[in-house]
Design brief:
Layout: H1 2-18, E1 22-25, E2 33-40, E3 46-53, E4 67-73, E5 81-85, E6 87-88, E7 94-100, E8 105-112, E9 126-130, E10 144-147
Parallel strand pairs: 1-10
Antiparallel strand pairs: 1-9, 2-3, 2-10, 3-7, 4-5, 4-8, 6-7, 8-9
């Protein structure tokens, strides 16, 4: 019986590692590396923490932008919501910590001419689908999506 439980635990751990979510990136930013984590909040929303290294200056992208802006979109028919602009350091590393009341959504980043853009104008540069299962619980490891690890 103990051997059976050990085999089940090993299989579950292997499946969890094999199905780690991926943050996809556009070819223009293929050298960027980073992570995004999703964590439930006390008020039944989702905390999003994004860190990306080795970004390009958004003014050098096609089309050019002024800042990298993160968006969430609950359904294809609903408009995307601007959840904040990444803070970029002199070494072109970006970071964002924000919350959304949503639990399941598309998360993506675009280059925009204004950090308070009302809707995305550029193509998605980074993206991932966050579903209800991609959360942190007290019993599991911190789920995160790796970027640029392909």
């Amino acid at each position: 019986m103990n051997r059976f439980i050990g085999v089940l635990a090993a299989a579950a751990l292997s499946a969890a590692c094999a199905s780690a979510p991926r943050l996809s990136s556009a070819p223009a930013l293929s050298k960027a590396k980073g992570t995004v984590t999703f964590k439930p909040t006390l008020y039944k929303g989702t905390k999003i923490t994004l860190r990306i290294e080795n970004l390009k200056d958004p003014e050098k992208l096609d089309p050019p932008g002024y800042s990298y802006v993160a968006w969430v979109q609950s359904e294809r028919e609903s408009p995307p919501q601007n959840v904040g602009a990444l803070v970029i350091d002199p070494d072109l590393n970006g970071a964002l910590s924000t919350t959304t009341p949503l639990h399941e959504f598309e998360f993506f980043v675009t280059a925009e001419t204004s950090s308070d853009a009302a809707q995305p104008t550029g193509p998605p540069l980074f993206w991932i689908h966050k579903d209800r299962e991609l959360t942190v619980t007290a019993d599991s490891a911190k789920p995160s999506a790796a970027l640029g690890t392909d």
